[in-house]
Amino acid sequence: MADLTQASARELARLIATGEVSAVEVTQAHLDRISAVDAKVHAFLHVDADGALGAARAVDEKRSRGADLGPLAGVPLALKDVLTQKDVPTTCGSRILEGWRPPYDSTVVRKLREADVVILGKTNMDEFAMGSSTENSAFGVTRNPWDLERIPGGSSGGSSAAVSSFQAPLAIGTDTGGSIRQPAAVTGIVGVKPTYGGVSRYGLVAFSSSLDQAGPFARNILDAALLHATIAGHDPLDSTSIDAPVPDVVTAARAGDVTGVRVGVVRELNGEGYDAGVRQRFSEAVALLTSLGAEVGEVSCPHFDYAMPAYYLIAPSEASSNLARFDAMRYGLRVGDDGTRSAEEVMAMTRAAGFGPEVKRRIMIGTYALSSGYYDAYYGSAQKVRTLISQDFAAAFEKFDVLVSPSTPTTAFRIGERTDDPLKMYLADLDTIPSNLAGNASMSLPVGLSPDDGLPVGLQIMAPALADDRLYRVAAVLEAALALQWGHALIEEAPAL
């Protein structure tokens, strides 16, 4: 049997369903891979070997009884440590939650369990999902499997690195301003931000409630679609969940034609500040879409230029409210509680010790933006810009079925390169933020390696809200054409490992 860690999720599910391999064998192969390489990568914060093998045994028992297995039954998955999983440590990459074991499952985890997906463990992340490099974790830096001196993106860098390094065929991340798509781009895999409200946020520890969205990582488009379909759907436990049918992303991922599909290249997301190698690979992919029958044109979304400043007022403002719950009184870290200090003093000492610099920075920005006398000037104005960005999308989607851009302006930068320059760090999400502000669906897929540094480049596809299937239709055709053009799959064994 070939190395099971190299197989796609769909192939692993087929092998398990036919009895050619057991779910336990598949799970153990991935646990062995984690043992072999994660000391270098540091994708995982917690590996739940006993829980994973127990779930795998349950799948094998189910198959032995002749019960029907779902499309991802027995397939291993890495879970970002921002989603609650009952009795499994959930830290959000923060000292303030170190050792906390939730008493309940998030809806995403419940759906994964119901689908018999095997959860291997929890992955590293920027603290409370605030970052673009996974350097802000309280528990150490995650490294890019393509070059261990470079970042794997953020905030879902642990999940992207786990999939890229073949420690898991699938992973879950969350995307508030690009935290699925940007890591996918720089590690050479597929990452999808579903329509806001398309996947339940119940049990997702909130950073910015109007922006946060969980979604899939995979090494190919069909695997991503299968995972997307598994976790999506209306949830009455989430007041922002959309009560509408889930787009048929799996059928779309199997479609083989983009003839007549109208593709708009966003002028504002492909200009100065982009690596030459990124622009080259992006232009080649767009030309390939044209050759495949797509109708390609340029479109202007003028208010996208203001997306980043608007985002960095809205997201911190919501964070300053959401993170108020970490008060040292109910759960998590408690510092200075020696019986002589007031609750306010304990709270201040705990937050000082428990929150990292980036989280403190964003809380202060958000609290200032919401303060009396500044609310309308900052937070209120940012929400008006958000409306203008949504209107830009609406106008663009009247002319085009999907929009495209690079997923990120550069390839993976070196660890430590931007830690002293927050504004430069924030530019990593330049292309991805508009879709979060508007709430529409978007995806990053790999389109080759930069000729400048040999590192992966991602192309972003954007579709209207509840038209997630369009992402998969276009991406599947482009993926197949790129594989033929290159003569091999784009994602092979990461060279640094």
Structure write-up:
By secondary structure, the chain is of the alpha/beta class. Helix content is 39%, strand content 12%. The chain is built from 16 helices and 11 strands. Helix 4 (107-114) links the parallel strand 2 (76-80) and strand 3 (118-123). Helix 2 (23-41) packs antiparallel against helix 3 (49-64), helix 10 (307-322) packs across helix 12 and helix 10 crosses helix 13. The longest helix is centred in the C-terminal third of the chain and has 24 residues, at 376-399. The two termini are 22 Å apart. The mean pLDDT is 95.
What structural class do the secondary elements suggest?
alpha/beta
SSE run: HHEHEHEHEHEEHHEHEHHHHEHHEEH
Task: Work out the radius of gyration.
Answer: 21 Å
Number of helices: 16
State the helicity in percent bands: 25-40%
Features:
single chain; 497 residues; globular; alpha/beta; eleven-stranded mixed beta sheet; 16 helices; 12% strand
Summarize, please.
The chain is built from 16 helices and 11 strands. The protein is α/β, with parallel strands linked by helices. The longest helix is centred in the C-terminal third of the chain and has 24 residues, at 376-399.
Write the layout of secondary structure elements.
Layout: H1 9-18, H2 23-41, E1 44-47, H3 49-64, E2 76-80, H4 107-114, E3 118-123, H5 157-164, E4 170-174, H6 181-187, E5 190-193, E6 214-218, H7 221-231, H8 249-254, E7 262-266, H9 276-291, E8 295-299, H10 307-322, H11 343-354, H12 357-369, H13 376-399, E9 402-406, H14 422-426, H15 433-438, E10 441-449, E11 456-463, H16 468-486
Parallel strand pairs: 2-3, 2-4, 7-8, 7-9
Antiparallel strand pairs: 1-3, 4-6, 5-6, 5-10, 9-11, 10-11
